[in-house]
């Protein structure tokens, strides 16, 4: 095998275990003497804890330990700790595990119990007495920004690159990105469109809830089996929260049932570790779905105002955007990335983008697939669609006219390296879907572009070799989207062996060097570079061994497609060299580390046909094509799957999903009431892969996991407008919302005569 | 000599300059020099220990340097260093 394997779709190495249910997920962990934990959570969205009495719970037979905020070390540090696609202040991270003096959102932990069974632990929770002093609640970010709003944190001051505010506020961060003279830009515009948008919190909706098992050994070592996208990030958080050296913590990532950015945070891990330490047994906890909704991190709800101006020929000349992102109880919404992504696809000579990170009495948000990008792109791409309609321009043509190219700059002034937006747009224009006639009443075709900058980070991998000529690969990237398959393909391609001869496994924090997490669409790119480098290191050593076997000078040996060759017609296959390692100096391992890589941004686009029932407001998707510049598809079926998965989640966000709150209380914390799409709701999502190689890395790979969720909401909104003439500015575009928009638009038309 | 691109929000601390040309073999050396030239800007970029604040992201020739990454990143003559607000949230 050689590089022709790249771009094919071999069977996944972990397929058998997944299909037969034999793979070990976190809840499957079973250790001798293991106890089970349950967490008591605040019923109030904002309250002071006056006292907690756990004595009755502790006295219940079968209860082994109880912990409250008093058992957790005092972490006052304002240092930020790595939580995957974000960082979070250490003291706030502790508060997500266990409240001390105050609770800031409903569902925040206030105590936890370990008992001989989960049912007994649950029973014991009811015996814990907590006296709260309820405090005023603010659950809307715009309300929270007002001067008279109740303050969540007395010591939170708005910070920005311009300095720190002098009075405490619920606005944690303020960011401004700007270029050129915005007012002069708008003065040059022939068309100006300005709209306000609102979106609600949505959850990643991973099927496997958060879970963790810990064993705090009497020798001080803590071992944790958990469901996470980043074992090293969990290690760092546990060490910080429990104030122990990182080397004392071993985190073993189990198979994972979805994450989408939401599984980088140690919600349960420090709690079960502390319970284990207290009761001297391993302790396991598994969240319920209601806990997942109310006590883990959804994506931000937002308020966004976008104003854009264009010349009559379609040239965009000015833009202004105001972004208010709800962080939930503690600072850290993805407003920073939102500020960079929304306008990134376009060359706009003058713009001003203001972003606010605002705390409210709701669950602290977490990353969700292209964090922050979907709401801002819903806004920007809707406004651009209106400009196209006003100018009578083709929506792809206008975007092509303004599309960024290599050498242009993103809104944060970072120069784009190799990007493929123009190639992608040209592919859309040529696609049969774009040219197909639309038939029927109240049908419309919508189009939108999405951008995600993609991460790079660092990865560490190791290769070792077996006497049968096969190769073991240990990587530290949790396998969510097919990492084992794509990394094994790279080993097969570089070493010239069969894909089936590569045995990939996922290591843990004790068995491998540091790895950034599986997130930010970085894994195939960055871990792929680490694997490539490990292969090159292996080839260098194997070349030396091959020279010994062929009795030639190593300098004379060349390597191609799995065969070492030397002058005089000598040659030996790589398998034979591997099989004879003991005869040529013994075993060896080859390591690979990546880091310092340039970003490999990805552009995507959604093209959708919808039918709208004007009587009920129901939107039916008739046809969907998802486009993406992936650089180079390593495992083609997985790439298509990522594009389809992102589009599916984007469709759910657009049409159905939303947290409903009343005074900080979530009203729909179950899959019965929180409406995620099922297979019955979704159309076939066709994919169109565009391959413009990225600047860095051996094959031009770009991450593919996120860009596909960015454009669907805007594409659907644009399709609905073209179907029934009603502009949707709120997500989700539920039947009620669509019906209301149609009614408003009809009333407006009637009033206009 | 590296060119440092200063965002609008920081230009109040750099005398209104949007581009600075500063010498230094590493990012740390460039930022130290920047802090000497513009102490207020230095305070906003670096904490008391001289490390990058979490509110800031730097891009050296397009490669992101985040808080916690360390500043011993080589800077070549002609390199471009973009100062930007951090992309990720948190503190």
Question: Topology, pairings included?
Answer:
The complex is a heterodimer of chains A (753) and B (91).
Chain A (H helix, E strand, L loop, with lengths): L14 H6 L14 E7 L5 E7 L1 H5 L3 E6 L11 E3 L4 E3 H8 L4 E2 L5 E7 L2 H8 L3 E6 L6 H4 L12 E4 L2 E6 L2 E9 L2 H7 L2 E9 L11 E6 L5 E5 L4 H12 L6 E5 L15 H11 L3 E4 L2 H7 L6 E9 L5 E13 L6 H7 L8 E10 L13 H19 L3 H8 L18 H10 L1 H4 L7 E10 L6 E7 L5 E5 L7 H13 L6 E5 L16 H28 L7 E3 L2 E4 L3 E4 H6 L10 E5 L7 E11 L6 E11 L6 H20 L5 E2 L2 E2 L18 E6 L21 H13 L10 H18 L1
Parallel strand pairs in A: 1-16, 14-15, 18-19, 22-23, 29-32
Antiparallel strand pairs in A: 1-7, 2-6, 2-8, 3-7, 4-5, 9-10, 11-19, 12-17, 13-14, 13-16, 17-18, 20-28, 21-22, 21-27, 24-25, 25-26, 28-29, 30-31
Helix pairs in contact in A: 10-11, 11-19, 12-13, 15-16, 18-19
Chain B lengths: L1 E4 L2 H4 L7 E4 L4 H11 L1 H7 L10 E5 L2 E3 L14 E6 L6
Parallel strand pairs in B: 1-5
Antiparallel strand pairs in B: 1-2, 3-4, 3-5
Helix pairs in contact in B: 2-3
């Amino acid at each position: 095998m050689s590089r022709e394997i790249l771009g094919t779709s071999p069977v996944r190495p972990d397929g058998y275990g997944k299909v037969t249910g034999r793979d070990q997920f976190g809840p499957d962990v079973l250790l001798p003497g293991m106890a089970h934990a349950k967490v008591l959570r605040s019923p109030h969205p904002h309250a002071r804890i006056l006292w907690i009495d756990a004595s009755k719970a502790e006295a219940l037979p079968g209860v082994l330990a109880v912990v409250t905020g008093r058992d957790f070390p005092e972490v006052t540090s304002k240092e930020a700790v790595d939580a995957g696609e974000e960082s979070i202040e250490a003291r706030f991270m502790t508060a997500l595990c266990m409240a001390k003096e105050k609770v800031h959102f409903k569902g925040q932990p206030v105590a936890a119990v370990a008992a001989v069974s989960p049912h007994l632990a649950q029973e014991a929770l009811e015996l814990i007495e907590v006296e709260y002093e309820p405090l005023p609640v603010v659950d809307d970010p715009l309300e929270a920004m007002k001067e008279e709003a109740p303050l969540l944190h007395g010591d939170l001051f708005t910070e920005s690159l311009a300095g720190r505010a002098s009075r405490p506020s619920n606005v944690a961060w303020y960011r401004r990105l700007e270029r050129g003279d915005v007012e002069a830009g708008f003065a040059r515009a022939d068309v100006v469109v300005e709209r306000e948008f609102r979106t609600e919190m949505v959850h990643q909706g991973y099927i496997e809830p958060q879970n963790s098992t810990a064993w705090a050994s009497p020798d001080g070592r803590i071992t944790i089996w958990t469901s996470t996208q980043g074992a090293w990030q969990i290690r760092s958080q546990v060490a910080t929260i429990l104030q122990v050296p990182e080397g004392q913590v071993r985190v073993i990532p189990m198979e994972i049932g979805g994450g989408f950015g939401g599984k980088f945070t140690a919600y349960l891990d420090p709690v079960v570790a502390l319970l284990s330490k207290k009761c001297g047994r391993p302790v396991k906890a598994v969240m319920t779905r209601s806990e997942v909704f109310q006590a883990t991190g959804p994506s931000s709800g937002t308020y966004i105002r976008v104003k854009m101006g264009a010349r009559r020929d379609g040239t965009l000349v000015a833009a202004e955007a105001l972004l208010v992102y709800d962080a939930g109880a503690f600072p850290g919404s993805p407003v920073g990335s939102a500020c960079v992504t929304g306008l990134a696809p376009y060359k706009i000579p003058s713009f001003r983008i203001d972003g606010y990170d605002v705390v409210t009495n709701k669950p602290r948000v977490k990353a969700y697939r292209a964090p922050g990008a979907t709401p801002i792109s819903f806004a920007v791409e809707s406004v651009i669609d209106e400009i196209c309609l006003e100018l009578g321009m083709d929506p792809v043509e206008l975007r092509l006219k303004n599309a960024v190219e290599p050498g242009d700059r993103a809104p944060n002034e970072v120069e784009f390296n190799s990007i493929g937006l123009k190639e992608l747009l040209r592919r859309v224009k040529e696609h049969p879907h774009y040219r197909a006639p639309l038939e029927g009443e109240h049908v419309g075709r919508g189009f939108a572009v999405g951008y995600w900058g993609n991460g790079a980070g660092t990865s560490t991998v190791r290769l070792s070799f077996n006497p049968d000529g096969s190769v073991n690969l240990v990587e530290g990237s949790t396998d969510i989207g097919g990492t084992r398959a794509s990394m094994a393909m790279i080993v097969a391609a570089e070493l010239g062996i069969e894909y089936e001869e590569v045995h990939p496994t996922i290591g843990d924090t004790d068995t491998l060097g540091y790895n950034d997490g599986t997130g930010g669409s970085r894994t195939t790119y960055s871990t792929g570079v680490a694997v490539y480098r490990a292969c090159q290191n292996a080839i260098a050593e194997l070349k030396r061994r091959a020279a010994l076997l062929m009795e030639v000078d190593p300098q004379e040996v060349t390597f191609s497609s799995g065969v070492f060759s030397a002058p005089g017609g000598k040659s030996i296959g790589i398998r034979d060299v591997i099989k004879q390692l003991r005869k040529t100096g013994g075993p060896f391992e080859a390591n690979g580390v990546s880091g310092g890589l340039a970003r490999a941004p990805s552009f995507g686009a959604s093209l959708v046909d919808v039918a709208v029932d004007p009587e009920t407001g129901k939107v039916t998707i008739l046809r969907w094509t998802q486009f993406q510049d992936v650089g180079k598809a390593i495992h083609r079926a997985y790439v298509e799957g990522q594009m389809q998965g992102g589009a599916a989640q984007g469709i759910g966000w657009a049409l159905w999903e939303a947290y409903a709150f009343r005074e900080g209380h979530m009203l729909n914390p179950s899959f019965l009431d929180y409406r995620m799409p099922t297979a019955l709701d979704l159309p076939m999502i066709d994919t169109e892969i565009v391959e413009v190689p990225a600047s860095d890395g051996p094959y031009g790979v770009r991450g593919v996991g996120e860009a596909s969720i960015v454009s669907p909401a805007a594409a659907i909104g644009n399709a609905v407008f073209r179907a029934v003439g009603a502009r949707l500015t709120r997500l989700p575009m539920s039947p009620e919302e669509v019906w209301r928009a149609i009614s408003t638009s009809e009333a407006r038309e009637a009033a206009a005569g | 000599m590296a060119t440092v691109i200063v965002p609008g929000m920081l230009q109040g601390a750099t005398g209104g300059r949007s581009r600075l040309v500063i010498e230094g073999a590493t990012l740390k050396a460039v930022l130290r020099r920047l802090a000497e030239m513009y102490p207020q800007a230095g305070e906003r970029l670096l904490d008391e220990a001289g490390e990058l604040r979490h509110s800031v992201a730097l891009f050296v020739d397009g490669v992101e340097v985040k808080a916690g990454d360390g500043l011993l990143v080589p800077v070549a003559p002609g390199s471009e260093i973009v100062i930007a607000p951090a992309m990720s949230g948190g503190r």
